[in-house]
């Protein structure tokens, strides 16, 4: 088996945030490995069901845009890879005139080939703008 191309791996990251912004909670959860962990808002969500359940509690009046930049891939094997990137988030709520900048995060997604597709084994990040306290 050969190593995957960068576009194949980057696509997992892009699909995750597209699903998040489009509120396609099922698609976002399906991108997680069966035992995958997403470190989100100080908690570890483990597995697809936990991710989907957490996303279903999001405020329906809140709209988001996640912009991914500076993406690179490292530690690639035929079945695992690490994708690093910056993610800048904006939100818009009903009644507001313009989007609000939420911050820029330094992100790491560890991926694993599972059931014929690349899935997120671990997803974590730290805020760099503004810096975390």
From TrEMBL:
Residue ranges of domain SnoaL-like in the record: 10-122
CDD domains on file: NTF2_like (cd00531)
Entry protein name: Nuclear transport factor 2 family protein
Natural source organism: Parapusillimonas granuli
């Amino acid at each position: 088996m050969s190593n995957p191309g960068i576009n194949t791996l980057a696509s997992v990251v892009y699909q995750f945030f597209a699903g998040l912004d489009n509120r396609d909670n099922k698609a976002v959860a399906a991108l997680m490995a069966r035992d995958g962990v997403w470190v989100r808002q100080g908690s570890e969500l483990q597995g697809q069901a936990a991710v989907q359940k957490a996303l279903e509690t999001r405020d329906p009046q809140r709209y988001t845009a996640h912009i991914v930049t500076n993406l690179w891939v490292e530690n690639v094997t035929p079945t695992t890879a690490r994708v690093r990137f910056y993610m800048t988030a904006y939100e818009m709520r009903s009644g507001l005139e313009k989007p609000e900048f939420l911050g820029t995060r330094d992100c790491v997604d560890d991926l694993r080939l599972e059931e014929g597709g690349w899935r997120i084994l671990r997803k974590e990040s730290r805020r760099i703008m503004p810096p975390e306290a």
